[in-house]
Every structure is written in structure tokens, then in C-alpha cells.
Specification:
Length: about 280
């Protein structure tokens, strides 16, 4: 195996997170990877920091209007032109466990056409907080995998129905079959779930790799911040803002594109209710 993982990281400001992420990647036990940063108009000195501290990192510049999905797609296109066989999408506000790349390669060799995600740990407590989900369209329920597993089974691969874009390993064969992320319908949130649902329908397996771990900051997400100060302005953002986790337009588009046709009316009604009223309950 003589190829390398191309890690695509879209960034906009928050250079301290980017620095911490890149420093953690520098400590990987397996260094067979390249990092491509897509800097979408940062104004906090990110560009200078990358040039001075991480000259080995490739930096692509956006116009300031890419958001997550178009930024990731720009990086993927660049990597594919360079012959990349494996793509990993990653957010800048994560810290990688030193064995992440090593364990991704190991399980990729066992499942060469599968998409692999990482087990997420809270960066502050070091406790596992996300180990994948399984969506049941018929019942409109999501089963979290992690709470169902005894401690001694929190290892290896666990099948899921969708994966987040944080530490998502995508073989080139997947991209060649289903294309890039859908930046027109989903410019920021839910593009990763849409992509992995699309891949699953196309016949590709999805797993969370519990041996590959990421440290994340759950309180730093845009939606968590919108929910932390509950008021009608933030309620509006929750439902309609591009970075709102309850964005009704994105949810509708996601459902119409991915949900089996017989279940669409119930899924939409259930989802709208949760988004309209759940904001004030959580």
C-alpha cells in the first residue's frame, strides 16, 4: 500500500483550534497522510500561522462564502487531481488520538470500500460521547450505538446508517460512484449525513471505527451556542439560519432526498414538531 490519506480541513478563523488539530496530527504513529487546509477568508492570522508553523500543509483559499460543504468539495477536487485514493474530511476543532491514522489504515485494509468514522471523546473529560447512530425510517427513531455496548465491546467496527464529517474516511471508489458532497442543497449542516446515506444506498458499508479516536469540543458547535442562550432571536436562527441545527429547509430537503417515499409524510410531520418545540425543551 503506497498511497496516502488526504485530510481535508475547511477553516474560517479559530486559528488556535486549527493549530491544536495540526499539532495532534504531527504526533500520529503513522505519517502516511497529507493535509489540505481550505481557508475560506480567515481574518485572525490563520494564513500567517499556517505559513510559519506548518509549511508542509497545503493551503487553498476560498472567497469567504464557501461554508463547510463547498470548502470540503474544493479540497477533495484538489486531492483527486493529485491522485488521492483515500480522502478524510475533518473539522479544525478536533484533536486526533495519536493512533487515528494507523487504525484507519488497519480497518480500511479489512473493508477497502467502506466509509469509516471515528469514535468521539469529549476533549475536556476524555469520555466517549459519540459512537455512531442507526436511523429507522419507519419508526422515525435514532438508536445511539455507544450506550448499547459494554465497555469490552467498544472496539473495532460497528455498523451505522450515517456518519458525521469529523474524521470521515472515504475511499476514492465511493466518490467515483456517487460524486462529491451536495453543496447546492446542503451548504453547511447535514451534508455529511446526506452523503453517507447516499453512499449506503449505493451499496457501500458504513462503520464507526472504535479504534480510531477523536477528541471534540461539543459545546463549540454553532447549534450548541444557539441553544445555550434561549431567546426568540436564537430560536429563529435554530430554524432558519444556515448554521441552525433545526434548519427546516435543510431537514425538508434531506427527507425528500433520502427518506423512503411511503414514510415521507410521517417523517416530515414528526421532524417539524421536534424542531419547532424541541428547542425550548432541551
Amino acid at each position: 500500500m503506497n498511497y496516502m490519506i488526504s485530510i481535508i480541513i475547511p477553516v474560517f478563523n479559530r486559528k488556535e483550534y486549527t493549530r491544536e488539530c495540526l499539532l495532534s496530527l504531527g504526533k500520529q504513529t503513522d505519517q502516511r497522510f497529507k493535509v489540505v487546509i481550505v481557508d475560506d477568508g480567515s481574518t485572525d492570522g490563520t494564513e500567517d500561522m499556517l505559513r510559519q508553523e506548518f509549511p508542509e500543509v497545503e493551503v487553498l483559499k476560498g472567497s469567504g462564502s464557501l461554508f463547510w460543504t463547498a470548502g470540503v468539495n474544493m479540497g477533495i477536487r484538489h486531492a483527486l487531481k493529485q491522485g488521492a485514493q483515500l480522502i478524510m474530511t475533518m473539522n479544525n476543532d478536533v484533536v486526533t488520538d495519536e493512533h487515528l491514522i494507523e487504525k484507519m489504515y488497519y480497518w480500511h485494509e479489512q473493508k477497502p470500500e467502506a466509509l469509516l468514522g471515528a469514535l468521539e471523546l469529549d476533549a475536556n473529560t476524555q469520555q466517549p460521547i459519540f459512537g455512531g447512530e442507526r436511523l429507522n425510517w419507519l419508526l422515525n427513531t435514532i438508536e445511539e450505538v455507544l450506550p448499547t455496548l459494554p465497555k469490552d465491546e467498544q472496539k473495532g467496527l460497528h455498523a451505522v446508517t450515517h456518519l458525521p464529517g469529523r474524521g470521515l474516511l472515504i475511499p476514492r471508489v465511493v466518490i467515483e460512484k456517487i460524486g462529491l458532497f451536495d453543496q447546492d442543497r446542503f451548504p453547511h449542516y447535514i451534508a455529511d449525513y446526506d452523503y453517507t446515506h447516499t453512499a449506503r444506498r449505493a451499496g457501500f458499508e458504513l462503520y464507526v471505527n472504535y479504534d480510531a479516536r477523536l477528541l471534540t469540543y461539543p459545546e463549540e458547535s454553532g447549534e450548541r451556542q444557539i441553544r445555550s442562550d434561549k431567546n426568540f432571536k436564537n430560536y429563529y436562527k435554530h430554524l432558519f439560519d444556515l448554521k441552525g441545527g433545526g434548519n427546516l429547509r435543510d431537514f425538508t430537503r434531506f427527507t425528500l432526498k433520502n427518506c423512503p417515499a411511503p414514510y415521507i409524510p410521517f417523517h416530515l410531520a414528526n421532524g417539524y414538531t421536534r424542531r419547532l418545540f424541541g428547542y425550548f425543551l432541551k
